[in-house]
Each structure stands twice: as C-alpha cells, then as structure tokens.
Amino acid sequence: MLRVGMLTSGGDCQSLNATMRGVAKALYQMYDDVEIIGFEDGYKGLIYMNYRIMQPEDFSGILTEGGTILGTSRQPFKLMRVHDENDLDKVEAMKHTYRKLRLECLVVLGGNGSQKTANLLREEGLNVIGLPKTIDNDLWGTDMTFGFQSAVDIATNAIDCIHTTAASHSRVFMIEIMGHGAGWLTLNAGMAGGADIILIPEIPYDINSIISALKKREKAGKDFSIIAVAEGAISKEDAKLTKKELKKKKEKAAKEGKMSYPSIAYEIGAQIEASCGLEVRVTVPGHMQRGGAPCAYDRVLSSRLGAAAAKMISRKEYGYMVAVKSREISKTPLEEVAGKLKTVDPNASIIEEARLLGISFGDEPV
Ligand code: F6P
Fold first, then answer.
1. pLDDT tens track for 172-204
2. Residue among 160, 166, 275, 259 at smallest CA distance from 215
3. Where in the cell is it found (predicted)?
4. Is 11 close to ligand 1, i.e. is its CB under 6 Å away?
5. Chain segment 92-142, per-residue pLDDT in tens
6. How confident is the prediction for the chain on average, in pLDDT?
7. Is 235 in the pocket of ligand 1 (CB under 6 A)?
C-alpha cells in the first residue's frame, strides 16, 4: 500500500482543488493500492494529526471549485523560523505524524513560506514534493504558479469596472492589487486593464513623476486616469530605508496624526489630491482576487502539475518542487526554492514594452 500525505498551506487561491485532483487522478490511474491522506488546515493538520483518509469521490467535481477541500492556514512557518523549543516540538510532531502514518511522501501545495517549511522537512529526512501555489507568482524556480492567472483575470475585471465609472466622473482611480513583495499581478492586470500608471515594488516611484504623468494626460484631453498600484509599492525615498526603519517611520507618522492611511493606495491618492486638486477614489478588490473558480489556464496548469507530481512519486523523485520552465513541466530542488522571491526585473522587455505603450511606472524623470 502506497500512502501519500497531502496538504494545502498558506493563503488560498483558485486552483488548489484542481491541483489536488490532478495528483489524485494520476495516482489512482497508476496504482491499485494507493491511499491519500489529506491533512486539515495545512501544516496544522500534520502537527496535530488531524487528517482524513481521502476517497476517490472526494476529488470528483472539484476541478472548477475555488478554495481548498482540505482547508489551509499560515501556521507554522513564522514560528518555525524562530526555532525555539516550542517550534522544535512542532517539527518533531510533524515527523512523528509522518512516520506513524507510514507515509511514502508528503505533497505540499503552497507558496514561499510553505515551500520553505517543506524544505525544512526534507532536511529532516522526509520525502517531500512541493507544488507551486500563489496568486503572486513570486515563487523562485518556476515561471508560473497556479492561481496567478485566475487572479489576473479578477483584478483585470476590477479595473474594467472602474474604467467606466472613472470615465463618467472624470476622476483618478487607484486600484490596489495584491502583491507585497512582487508586482507580477499588478503589472499583468494593469496592462490587461489598460492602466495609465502602474506602480510595483520593484520600481520605486516618485510622487512628482506620478503627478507629472497625470498632468500630461490632462493636457492631452484625457479627463480620467487609472492607476494600478501593488500593495507593496514603495516610494524612492522609502526604498532607501531598511524594513525596520520604514516601519518606525510609518508608526511615528501615524502617532503624530500625519499619516494613518489603511494602505499605500490611499496614501498616494491623498498626495495626488493635495498637490494637484484632482478628484481621487481608491478601490481595493482585496481577497476577491483569491476567490471563485479557477480560470481555464489554471485548470490546465494545475492538472499538468498534479499529474507530474504523481509521476515523480512513482519514480521516487523527492525533494523537488514541480515547476514550469519555458512552458514545459519541470522540477526545481526545494533547497533552491526556499527563502527566495521571484520578482519582476525592472529591465525586462515587458516593462520596456509597457513604457512604449505610454504606461508610466512613476519613475520617469520630471
Ligand atoms: O500570498 C498571497 C497573498 O494573497 C498576498 O498577495 C497578500 O498580500 C496576502 O496573501 C494576504 O494575506 P492574508 O490572506 O493573510 O490576508
């Protein structure tokens, strides 16, 4: 009997179920005697031995369902980084569950933090396979993550909806798109939605440059503007600070009542209104970007990734994350993936092409 453990970890996304179905379908095709153990709520299930023995029917009809049938949580990555006594207990608990259930391997569907934990378990001697999940597309070692294209579609739809109201009211609209450390989602949805200005963490902005881009549009007779801004967008000035210094600066400003904006889009919006009198509105689609059914692209990608994971199990190829490289399904060692972020290269051709289309990144000289 082949026993395979599976869990979904970190923030959810649209194509988790489709990916699990891919793994399961391929395993059931390959083996007569396979048992899939589904751990509940991510690594928590592995720590506290909360699991279900999955049946083939559990994976039926879930290709198009968002969320995750296993549940997810962000535990215990943050705690494990500290490596205090308590955390070591958790690592031991995970190893204990794995051994007690006599698992052949553990399949982890997760993003950055989750793959880091997967690598830690690999170092502890467990057979682990990662599957690249995140709407942020910021996982190192893969060109594409599942969930990303579905989120691009949703964020694009949000920009499309804002376009019509922005045009009717002659307003500047800021649409804040998810992505703290990387601007993939904002860049793609911004271009797909025809944004005039795109602000991403990888290209620090200058507020004067943004205002100059808005004025240029006004002069050209355009009476509304769309700004797609990533959650993690940062000004040139703030980009010079360390994370700690930036946190301190924001806390101080909030204490003095100078700045207490809920997010970067509100902060930039207020600066625009104060300096050039344009009417600004802010929209934050938020977790909508992770919800609903996966798009067709993700359904295909997830099915392929899942099947590839099953093939790796049959070959006992452990310690890798299944990946996409030049449109082919491939694999990257977990130790290479762990702890690294894949960000947008400011010199990539897509940035140049966007600039040729007249899109401002808020960094042009004024
Ligand atoms: O990692 C995916 C992501 O959706 C990010 O884009 C976003 O910043 C974050 O998760 C939100 O996390 P939470 O669900 O914990 O609010």
1. 999 999 999 999 999 999 999 999 999 999 999
2. 275
3. Cytoplasm
4. yes
5. 999 999 999 999 999 999 999 999 999 999 999 999 999 999 999 999 999
6. 94
7. no
Local structure of 278: helix, strand or coil: coil
Neighbours of 245 (CB within 10 A): 11
Options 41, 136, 153, 298, the catalytic residue: 136
Per residue in 42-80, pLDDT tens? 999 999 999 999 999 999 999 999 999 999 998 655 544
Distance of CA 213 to CAs 83, 227, 263, 276, 341, Å? 48, 11, 22, 12, 30
Residue linked to tokens 């000004």: 235
Nearest alpha carbon to residue 308 among 94, 101, 19 = 19
Tokens of 251: 């806390």
Query: What is the pTM assigned to this prediction?
Result: 0.95
| 12 CA → ligand 1 middle, Å | 9
